[in-house]
Backbone:
């Protein structure tokens, strides 16, 4: 049972445009959500997170939106840069569960020139 | 955040042998985690390792196959025992800071022939 889903395995965006990566979850107990970026041959790098008490969190070019009623979150990258090309994972956790993360399957973002 | 390193970075092993992966954190941490990423798949939590206690394994993972040590607050090992080709994966260790963000090591890419 895949509790965190990223339905788009890949996404191609032109440099300077907006990249929107989507993530859906099924477990209503999740209350903290994270996005990670992963380059080949490296471990995942934490990008940004959001608590369920918020619906938006912004950090520079990265903004995460959370729609609790739809059990949906999205990561916006504006403007997209070639260095953003990587696999992006969303993850979810339940506060107080020893930080156990449940990951989505990932979306490969390709930013083209 | 602390810096997490893993050894080896990659290995090619024969069926039936065992490999021990080391994870070193440059500061003391309470909890460490071991994940597996099979080819084309998401990250799956194997177990949580706390210093001074037995590791807690997730469903589908057992101590006989993946014994874990946590001798102090900066170090952990994961052994992949009696390997088969299905164990070919990237193995990642992580630790947690703040509200739930986990920071990952670079991973160990294991190929079993």
Residues:
């Amino acid at each position: 049972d895949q509790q965190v889903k990223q339905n788009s395995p890949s996404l191609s965006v032109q440099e300077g445009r907006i990249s929107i990566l989507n993530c859906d979850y099924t477990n209503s107990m999740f209350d903290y959500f994270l996005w990670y970026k992963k380059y080949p041959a490296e471990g995942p790098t934490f990008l940004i997170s959001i608590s369920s008490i918020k619906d938006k969190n912004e950090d520079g070019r990265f903004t995460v939106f959370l729609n609790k009623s739809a059990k949906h979150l999205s990561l916006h990258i504006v403007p997209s840069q070639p260095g953003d090309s990587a696999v992006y994972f969303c993850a979810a956790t339940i506060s107080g569960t020893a930080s156990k993360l449940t990951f989505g399957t990932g979306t490969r973002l390709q930013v083209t020139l | 955040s602390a810096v997490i390193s893993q050894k080896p970075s990659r290995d090619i092993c024969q069926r039936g042998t065992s490999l021990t992966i080391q994870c070193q954190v440059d500061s003391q941490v309470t909890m460490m985690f071991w994940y597996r990423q099979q080819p084309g798949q998401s990250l799956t939590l194997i177990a949580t390792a706390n210093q001074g206690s037995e590791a807690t394994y997730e469903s589908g993972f057992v101590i006989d196959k993946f014994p874990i040590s946590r001798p102090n607050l900066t170090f952990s090992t994961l052994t992949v025992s009696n390997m088969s080709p299905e164990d070919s994966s990237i193995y990642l260790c992580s630790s947690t800071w703040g509200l739930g963000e986990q920071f990952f090591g670079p991973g160990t890419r294991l190929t079993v022939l």
About this structure: Chain B has a mean pLDDT of 92. The CA atoms of residues 49 and 55 of chain B lie 5 Å apart. The interface with chain A takes residues 1, 4, 31, 33, 41-45, 48, 92, 94, 96, 99-107, 109 of chain B (CB under 8 Å). Chain B is about 0% helix and 55% strand.
